[in-house]
Write a structure and sequence with these properties.
alpha+beta; Structural Genomics Hypothetical 15.5 Kd Protein In mrcA-pckA Intergenic Region, Chain A; Pseudouridine synthase; 3 domains; four-stranded antiparallel beta sheet; 8 helices; elongated
């Protein structure tokens, strides 16, 4: 855990757990201007202190200084595609060393059409402008096409909905996915419509609110009563050694840093309603971390399979509500960030869906019955 995380955890423990507020953190407005789209031919010149640099690294730094929406991945692709000339000569080697005073021309071609088909699927849109769109994703909807899910995804729906307003992410007219929710997790998700917004949002999500404006909060129903009112799970995550489709807590040498903060919202007899805030964004992070400390999510068939017998502790109504949920009880409830182009502070809240709410109500009745 880094120093900031330790400091936050210590403050939470001392105070009994500060509320995970949906508001954006207090901070000075960003001093850097927003990213702008790069179109047509963009010219650069190698300065005295830049002689000897690799072509791709020079362009990455130069584009960033000029706040051009040209990621290093995109620039490398353009170099290898023959869209970059050094002193008038086409150069396809990203590692080519540059001489002082060299003049570089980068051709940023119009975005290509996506090979993903658009589909007319219902979308619960919370906010939309020319740069990005915030949606409330229902449980059961896959975010991105993948083997086994080539159709019926959020990306398919966005390509149809956004149409010509997709100006190109990475050179292709497609929505820019900067974070994902599991298929069976409901709640708020933001997607970029332009390359500039995509890069700005990607930087925010890579920082995970450590120094930037990003705020993400989840509501989760977990088995058992947690110790204390708040806490943190700091445990590296990586692929499971035997079940490659699963994630697991692993050694620091095998995994990546992962930190989840939680706060008790309401004890519910054999279960608890908690709020979770991510300090990192690993695959299945909340699900794995909570299972790791002995409190897996209700309905999680992957990481909470050993807790199926816990359902016997529930009232008939709660058991039926859990069966009706049919998935892990996890909802992305709050999303806040500074707009990557306008700088506006945006904050959104999404109440849990009806099946989640019905389960909470039924658990309250279970808790009241057991307590009385």
């Amino acid at each position: 855990m880094n120093a900031k995380a330790k400091s936050r955890a210590a403050r939470n423990a001392a105070s009994g757990g500060a509320p995970l507020e949906p508001a954006l953190p207090d901070r000075e407005p960003a001093e850097r201007p927003p990213l702008v789209a790069a179109e047509g031919i963009v010219d650069f010149e190698v300065g005295v202190g830049q002689a000897g640099e690799r072509l791709d690294r020079f362009l990455g730094h130069a584009a960033d200084e000029r706040r051009l929406a040209l990621s290093r991945t995109r620039l490398k692709a353009l170099i290898e595609a023959g869209m970059v000339a050094v002193d008038g000569l086409e150069t396809r080697d990203p590692a080519a060393k540059l001489a002082k005073g060299a003049k570089i021309a980068v051709v940023a071609p119009p975005a290509e059409e996506s090979d993903v088909a658009g589909e007319d699927l219902p979308l619960d849109i919370v906010f939309e402008d020319d740069c990005l769109i915030v949606l409330n994703k229902p449980a059961g909807l896959v975010v991105h096409p993948a083997p086994g899910h080539s159709q019926g995804t959020l990306v398919n729906a966005l390509i149809r909905h956004c149409g010509a307003s997709l100006s190109g992410v990475g050179g292709v007219k497609r929505p820019g996915i900067v974070h994902r929710l599991d298929k069976d997790t409901s709640g708020l998700i933001v997607v970029a419509k332009t390359d500039a917004a995509h890069q700005g949002l990607a930087a925010l999500f890579a920082d995970h609110g450590r120094t930037g404006s990003l705020v993400r909060e989840y509501r989760a129903l977990v088995w058992g009563a947690l110790e204390g009112k708040a806490g943190s799970v700091d445990a590296p995550l990586g692929r499971h050694s035997r079940h490659r489709e699963k994630m697991a807590v692993v050694s620091a040498t095998r995994g990546r840093e992962a930190v989840t903060h939680w706060r008790l919202e309401e004890p519910l007899g054999p279960a608890s309603l908690i709020a979770c805030r991510l300090e990192t964004g690993r695959t299945h992070q909340i699900r794995v971390h909570l299972a790791h400390i002995g409190h897996p999510l209700l309905g999680d068939s992957v990481y909470g399979a050993g807790f199926k017998t816990k359902a016997s502790q529930l009232s008939d109504g709660a058991r039926l509500a859990l069966e009706a949920l049919g998935r892990q009880a996890l909802h992305a409830a709050t999303l806040g960030f500074e707009h990557p182009i306008t700088g506006e502070a945006l904050s959104f809240a999404s109440p849990p869906p009806d099946d989640f709410t019905r389960l909470v109500k039924a658990l309250r009745e279970t808790g009241d019955h057991r307590g009385g």
